[in-house]
Amino acid sequence: MADAADASDRDARHNTKMKKVKAAHDRIVAAKTREKGLLIVHTGNGKGKTSAALGMVVRAIGHGMKVGVIQFIKGAMTTGEKVVFDAFPDQVEFKPMGEGFTWNTQDRARDVAVAREAWDEVKRMIADPSYQMVLADELNIVLRYDYLPLDEVLAVLAAKDEMKHVIVTGRNAPDALIDIADLVTDMTMVKHPFRAGVKAQKGIEF
User: Fold this and answer.
1) Mean pLDDT of the chain
2) What is the pLDDT averaged over residues 148-160?
3) In CATH, what number is assigned to the domain containing residue 126?
4) How many other CB atoms sit within 10 Å of the CB of residue 55?
């Protein structure tokens, strides 16, 4: 009987505590009334930057939003996400426009030209009011290698429509980009199977 009484008392205390927590949380949520388009940056050395961004794209599809996805660097291989997004042609324009990493292409002039073509598409989507979300995947890598002028990129992002979401991914996000962003996530690598000899796998990396 004592154990049952102790459990009942513990449950009652928990219930009282959770009521207080919920009331406090509800007050915080009620105070957040502003709605705006966000500039979102996913950076860091850990895996998951593109994956998290594509998850947002999937979520946007579920809400009936139109999304533009431009992939810098990537494009030399078929990915699972392209197959999925191709099933929603009215909602998603998915354009892998890269030709691989710079150590693969070994042609800086070509890399710069391809980056410019991809950036022009990002600018088009940002300027088009029909797109509610635009993902510039691996744009940070392009900026790191100075394939595009940082000032130009920052100016376009700063001038986007107030209600449009723009997501930028890639390692080594410039400090100036982080400064103007609304939401920044730094992916930290704790462990990665590649270091143990495991190759990139379908459904995980592509």
Assistant:
1) 90
2) 98
3) 3.40.50.300
4) 11
Count of structural domains within the chain: 1
pTM attached to this predicted model: 0.85
The 10 Å CB-count burial string (b at 16+, else e) for 168-195 is bbbbebbeebeeebeebbebeeeeeeee
DSSP letter at 46 equals S
Angle, CA 124 vertex, CA 41 and CA 87 arms, to 5°: 80
Contact call for residues 182 and 39 (beta carbons, < 8 A): yes
140 within some domain: yes
More confident residue, 101 or 65: 65
Q: Is residue 13 part of a domain?
A: no
When pLDDT is cut at 50, 70 and 90, the band that residue 103 belongs to is low
User: Within the chain, where are the H helices?
Assistant: 2-31, 49-62, 80-85, 102-105, 108-127, 139-144, 150-158, 175-180
Structural domain that includes position 155:
38-196
